[in-house]
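Below is how a single chain appears once it has passed through the pipeline. First comes the sequence as given, then the structure the pipeline wrote out for it. We keep one example in the README because the format questions we get most often are answered faster by looking than by reading.
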Amino acid sequence: MASILVVDDTPAIRGLVARLLASAGHTVTQAANGKEALRAVKFADFDLVVTDIVMPEMEGLELIRSVHKIDPGMKIIGMSGGGRGMPADYLTLAKNFGASATLEKPFGNEDFLNTVHAVLGEPPSS
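Resulting structure:
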């Protein structure tokens, strides 16, 4: 299966997403913010980055741009529940910055895993 980096400043969400991915057979690395994630991307090979958009230290939009400078082909899923703006605004920007897909929080487990599988080019979960 895939090696996936999960980036979210909320430990409960980061842990939930990591557990979902691990239960689907993926290898998961976690980062609490964009700066941690960028360090991880520089030193490890990932098939996918799943990142929150609104975070301290380095927001997800900046992370998406920075990751694509390192690896232009990296697949990225951006997720957001809003913050100071509407989630759709952040998610549109994430797509414009190069995210392969986006998800609005809260999302269902099946929707999340189906999005991951689609981005990775794998068959949907049953």
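The domain at 3-120 is CATH 3.40.50.2300 (Rossmann fold).

See the next section for the split statistics.
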